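P.,

For your records, the input lines for the assembly:
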Amino acid sequence: MKIKWCILILLIPIILTSCSTFSGFIGGGFGNFFGSSSDGTVGGRGVMLKFVDAPDNNAEFSEGIPFTITIQVENNVVNEQGLNGRLCLKDGLSDSFGGILDSDQCVPVSLPTASKVTNKINPSIDRYDFGPYSYRGLQKELSLKTMITADFSYEIDSIAGASACVKRKAAQSSTIPSNCGEKQNLQVQQPDLPVKITSISSRVASKSDSESILLLDITLSNSHGGQVLSSGSALGATNNLPTTAEIDFDITINQQPAICEGVSRKRVEIRKNENQKVIKCRTDLLLNQDYLEAPIVIKMNYGYKQSIPGPTLILKKEDLIA
Amino acid sequence: MKIKSLITIFTLSLLLILSSCTGSGGKKVSGTGFIGGQEGITSSIEIQSTTGGNQIFDKNIDPFKIQINLQNKGEDDVETNEILVSLDGINFNAFQINPSTKSSSIPLKGIRKEAGKVTDPTQTIIQFDANYKPDEAADTSKELSANICYKYQTKSRVEDLCLRKKITGPTQSSDCKVDEVKTAQNSGSPFKVKTFSERPAGENKINIFIEAENIGPGTIYSKEFLSKGSCLDEQNEKNKIYVKVDLTDFENDAAIISCSGLNKNEGSLNVIQNKVQLSCDIDTSSFQESTFETSINVIFDYVYKDAVSTTLTIKSST
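C-alpha cells returned:
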C-alpha cells in the first residue's frame, strides 16, 4: 500500500510538468503584483521653516542679557528658479525696549532648487543667524511678555499637471477609458505649496464628430494660512500688504494655450481674504484619433508671506529675578 | 499482486498525461476543410527604449520605438496595405510621431494545412518612431493605445443543404430533411455563422435563415473602410458587413437565391448588437425532381477593428 502512494506522489509532478497548458500557473502570472509605480511627488513638503536655535519658550530674560536666533529654511520644491525670499524677525515690543528692532532685521534668502534622484527629493537647506539681541528699559514692577516671530516672504514658481480624457463622438473601443468624455474630477500632480489646485473638474462638449470643447473648473486655494502676494513683489514686501495680489497663471491644454475667465495677460487676481478661487477655462480640441488623454499643465508664479511663531520671552528687571 | 497494481497505476497515469496534454502540434485539424478558430489578426504592443520596461525620458533626449506585432491566426490571406495601425490616446506632437497611421508592407497569409499539420501564423511588425519633447516636472504615466484595422473574410459552409424541385408533398424516409437546423462550418476568423436553418417556404421554394455573430473583441466595419486611410471610429462605416450566398453546384445563384435586404444573393447588412440575421429564399423550380444534398457558402467581407494598449512611464530627466 505504501508503495502505491509513493508511486502516485512521484507521478503527480510528472503529469503537471509534462503539460504545457499548466505553465501559466507554475511559471508566471504574478508579475503585476510587484509592478513598479511612480508616486509622482514633485515638491514633497514644499517650503519649511523652523527655529533651530532660540531661547526656550517662556524663558525669562533680564536687561542686557544677550540671545541669538537661528532659523532653518528648507526648500523641497523642484522647479526652475529655486527659492528667493526675505526672512525677517520681529518681536512684539517697541524699539524703546531694544530687542529686535523694527528696522534692518531682515536677511535675503536664496536657495537652489531641490534635486530629485530616483524619485527621492533632496531638499536644499540653509540656516540664518540673527542677533545678538538684548532688552533694556524694563521696569521693576512689571514683567513683559513678547513673542518672537519670523516673517518669510518669498517668490515661488510651481508646475501642476493633470490629464483629461476626450474622445470622438462615435468612438467605441476596449482601450478607451470607461469614463472618457464624461464629467470627471481630475487627479492633479503638484508640489506642496501654499497656492494649491484643490480640484479640476472637466467636461466635454462635442462640436462635431472630431471636434470637442474641453471645459475645466479649476479651484485654487490658499492652503498655508499666509498671504498671497503679487508675482515679483515678495522681496520688497512690507507690513502693509495690498488687499489684492496678481499672480502669474499660465495654462496649456494639449500643448495649446487655454482661454480662461478672469485671467488677463496670464495673470489672475486673488483678494486678501479670498481662500478659494474658481477659474473657468476652455479649449477647442481637434481629434485626429479615437481618444486623447489631453495633458493639462498649469504654471504659477507668485509671492507668499508666512509668519512662523517662535518662542515667547518673559522680560523682567534683574533684581526682581533675584 | 504488487506488479499488477503497479501496472494499473502506471496505465492510469499514462492515460491522464495523454488526455490532459494538447500535444506539440497545437490545433486539431477537423475533417471539414476549415481549420477554424476565433481569431483573425492578433496584435501586441511593445516599447523599445534604451531603459526598457516601458520607460522613456522626457525633454527630447530619448528616442524610442512603438512596435506593433501582428500575427495572422485566422484563415484569410491579408494582402499588403490591408492592415492599418493608428496610434491613439496620446498627443502626437508631444511624442513627435508623424505619421500616426501606418499600413502593413507585406502580405500575411492565413494559417493552412501543410502535410496534415497547421502552419504557424505569419507575422509582421509596424514601428513608429517617437521622442517625448515636453519637460515633465515629475515621472508620469500615459496610456498608449493602437487601433488595428484589417480587411478580412469569413467563409461559412453548410455541406448538407437538402433540395429538390417540389418541396411540398410526400418524400422517402431515407431522403435528407428540408426542415431542420444544419451545422455551419466556419473559416478561422472573429466573425462566424452560429445558426443555419432550412425550411420549406412554398411548393418550389426553400427558405434558409442565417444568424452570424462577431465573437471577437473588436468591431465590424464596411469592407471599404480602409480607404479612409486611418483606423479611427466612424459612425457611417461602422457595423456594416458585406455578404454573399452561393450554392456550390450551381452557377446562376443570383437567379435562384433572393435574400431579404440584399440585391438578390449579395449586399451589405447592418450588424446589430454584434449580430446579423439573414433570410433567403431559394427557387427550386429548375432543380431535379429527386432529393439531393449540396453545399451552400456564405461569405462575409469586412474590416475588423481591434485595439491594444500599454502604459508608458515618462521619467523626468530634471
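Two observations worth noting. Residues 2-20 of chain B form the longest helix (19 residues). Chain B touches chain A through 50 residues (CB under 8 Å).

Regards
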